[in-house]
Amino acid sequence: MTSSTRKLNLNVGINTTGYLPNAWKYRTGSRHDINDPGYYRGLTELAHRGLFDAVFFSDHPALMTDPKGRPFHTIDPLILCTALAAQVPDIGFVATMSSTYNSPYNLARRTQSTDIMSGGRLIINIVSSFNPSVAANFGSAPLPPRSERYARAWEFLDVTKKLWSSWDPARDGQIPEDQFWDASSAHAIDHAGEYFSVKGPLNVPLGPQGHPVLAQAGASEGGIDLAARHGEIIYCNILSRPAGQAFGKKVRDRAVAFGRDPSGIRIVPGLVVILGDSREEALRKHELFSGAGSEDGLLARFIKEHNIDPEGFDPDAVLDAERFIPNPNRIQAVGMGLGLSDLLTHERLTARQAVRRAEGNHRLVLGTAEEVADAIIDLWADGTVDGYTLQPPRAPDDIQEFIDKVIPILQDRGVYRTRYEERTVRERYRLPYPF
Amino acid sequence: MTSSTRKLNLNVGINTTGYLPNAWKYRTGSRHDINDPGYYRGLTELAHRGLFDAVFFSDHPALMTDPKGRPFHTIDPLILCTALAAQVPDIGFVATMSSTYNSPYNLARRTQSTDIMSGGRLIINIVSSFNPSVAANFGSAPLPPRSERYARAWEFLDVTKKLWSSWDPARDGQIPEDQFWDASSAHAIDHAGEYFSVKGPLNVPLGPQGHPVLAQAGASEGGIDLAARHGEIIYCNILSRPAGQAFGKKVRDRAVAFGRDPSGIRIVPGLVVILGDSREEALRKHELFSGAGSEDGLLARFIKEHNIDPEGFDPDAVLDAERFIPNPNRIQAVGMGLGLSDLLTHERLTARQAVRRAEGNHRLVLGTAEEVADAIIDLWADGTVDGYTLQPPRAPDDIQEFIDKVIPILQDRGVYRTRYEERTVRERYRLPYPF
Fold first, then answer.
1. Angle in degrees, CA A429, A431, A432, rounded to 5
2. pTM listed for this prediction
3. In the beta sheet, which residues pair with residue B358?
4. Residues A179, B67: contact at Cβ < 8 Å?
5. CA nearest neighbour of A36 among A76, A63, A94, A75
6. What is the DSSP pairing of strand A270-275 with strand A266-267?
7. Computed from CA positions of residues A224, A387, A266, A169, in that sequence, does the dihedral angle turn out positive or negative?
């Protein structure tokens, strides 16, 4: 079932209006799209035409009520993926969910249920939640500290894996004629740990993939531990080859330290693509979609974001990497801020150059379709990455454009599929069967 | 949108192999059906041909590991309903879920998501969970006492309703051109009660039904309080006209006492139908499907279930209702045991008669298709009930048979629809819009 040649893996994020907060002004569609089932079905069918591995939904269980912003997380991702999988064949689904605000039994059951209903097309992206406005929807206790959230996430996934394998009809022995089933194919897990006490067994059996594929997105130290221990697909922000190689080595080395075979890890960072008929046109679209308006606007945003004193700041001077290491005490996903400091550690860049290398914390690739395809293949060919999670500035427009212009080049170069072959996303990612 | 003549409402339960534990021996299909998505799709399409209001899934989040039994609750009901609604049009879905082992924010979000994805076809049946094997899957604390579970369920639904109405795009004012949305259409709920503290708003807006239709199944005093306060569809066990009228009056009177308009309550009890070409044939099928084997077997089971001393027991003596009031301290759903004592309070019956009046705690109707149709219409015509939730002994066989033989009679009598008309289940049940 598993294809023998290595192919580029590509996911595509389809949250509400697209990845970039300000790009909605230039998109096709109405503002009512964001809660319209037909809109998400259309995006998924579009991604299916592009032969993507999976559509990706990030999530926070809270409404961001900034009047200048836009709702980015609305319909529950697992519900959305379950409905869409029933309507669109082949393509996989990445649903983000919180280990801090779910119970392992419910999460194990629901996700295995969706994996069964979709015929093995579910990837779950477990996050520990970092936002106080999420915490306030789940009680009066403040958000636990990051170290506790990661310790909990670690045990959460340990328990969840035990539950996923607790009922395996393949263990059936001889079943007498007057009995419906072999109850010994299910066993209690009797987990009693620091955070969870769960008896089991799960009342859903092993699914088509054993269990859903596990994505992991954190890049803080706790996040890397979790990725090394449990992650099969690593969603991260990698802005250059050396940064990517260093990150990949770190995760794989740590997997080995945990006694895990690192060959079962795929690195599929975020990627923002902005296409133009010329590089100049792409640069202007970047200025527009980012909301900065011009190159000076991009520089002004950079200065503001990094609390730089604008007085005497030289946008053409080489930046000091140390200056950009994110404060681990800031209320945000720490890993998201690491990309820039990692980039500057490995490349000498000015602010004018740096603002064109990342957008929304992810690698930004600007230019013609040929230039974009080259840049995508570049880090994939030597194994720095296994593919990308495309984060289109606008949905549906930039997904459509990528499919029309970049996918055919990737196919011509022989690095991207021309039809869906494998049945499950696990097979499509050449990941080992877990049990 | 709402049909002007009152019609019989019919749901059908489609859990695993059918409602009666021993009837699987006589069903069509394989034991692997119970975790097969195609099987549930087939059952839902079958129910759609029968023009049922909704398919119903009861649930416990635990695997019952009795080797002599069969798994009755496997794939998560909300996931199953979400996938099936994406595949089968028109028909509604009743998903059972626990207020004891979910958080209001997650449940409000997921259910509203499914209601949006299905175009307004979700009914949720909130239960407080009574089984210690469920509790053990959610921590080391024992099951809370019933009174606490009901107090929690009451507040749970209060919070959930606040969340469901916390973001209403219909409240949009004028939106400036450079803004995506009117953030004032969403408001925090700032709930701080005895069991829950939830800030809100929900990140999913009002759905096609305002919120999913609320079913309520408890018949204990706490359950009736909850039904009177929050229930729109009451799923219960009513074995006779006077018992049904007394129950309906109790729920409606209590709704009035809570300041609620009782016209928004529908009573749709469980019903087990066993058809034969003659009443004799139906009696034999009852003995077979129940697992009792014979009328003597049914009487022996009755004696055992009710801890009666078999010595000198006369199956043809009139039973004493008092003797059959369920012990409220027993570990079971108390309401399920009330049907028999209610029946015996209103009718003088012998054990030989009583064993033919209920199966699996629900009203049993035995006989030819004409007799069954008569019995169904009988309690509906005068408003004792609004319809029934059919619990077929075997799935798919007894659903198919009911559709082939009983539905056409109900249609001929003009009490049952001949096609789907209303868009949402709320309209189909003639229930008021909640907000």
1. 160
2. 0.96
3. B363
4. yes
5. A75
6. unpaired
7. positive
Distance from CA of B171 to the nearest CA of A (A): 14
Q: Are B283 and B294 in contact (CB under 8 A)?
A: no
Categorize the per-residue pLDDT at B331 as very low, low, confident or very high, splitting at 50, 70 and 90: low
Locate the chain A residue with the closest alpha carbon to B109: A76
Q: Which of B32, B65, B205 sits opposite A186 (nearest CB)?
A: B65
Which amino acid appears at position B294 of this protein? S
Considering only CA atoms, which of A102, A264, A286 is closest in space to residue A196? A102
Distance, CA of A286 to CA of B353 (rounded, Å): 80
User: How far apart, in whole angstroms, are the C-alpha atoms of residue A151 and residue A18?
Assistant: 32
CB pairs A-B closer than 8 Å: 188
Nearest-5° angle of CA B123, CA B126, CA B131?
140
Cβ proximity of A251 and A268 under 8 Å: no
- Scanning B138-157 for CB atoms below 8 A from A yields 138-140
Beta bridge partners of B270: B389
Interface check A168 vs B, CB under 8 A = no
> Alpha carbon of A191 to those of A156, A283, B51, B139, B144: distances in Å?
11, 54, 45, 10, 21
pLDDT at B2: 45
Q: According to the model, what pLDDT value does residue A422 have?
A: 95
- Cα separation, B361 vs B301, whole angstroms: 13
Report yes or no: B398 and B273 within 8 Å, Cβ to Cβ. Answer: yes
10 Å CB burial of residue B182 (0-12, 13-18, 19+) is middle
Tell me if residue B380 falls in helix, strand or coil: helix
The model's pLDDT over B43-87, given as tens digits with 9 standing for 90+, comes to: 999 999 999 999 999 999 999 999 999 999 999 999 999 999 999
How would residue A244 be classed by pLDDT, with cut points 50, 70 and 90?
very high
Distances in Å between the alpha carbon of B75 and those of A161, B81, B112, B127? 17, 10, 20, 17
Residue with tokens 């019989």: B8
Does position A329 have pLDDT exceeding 80, yes or no? no
Which domains does chain B carry?
A: 9-169+186-275+363-428 (3.20.20.30)
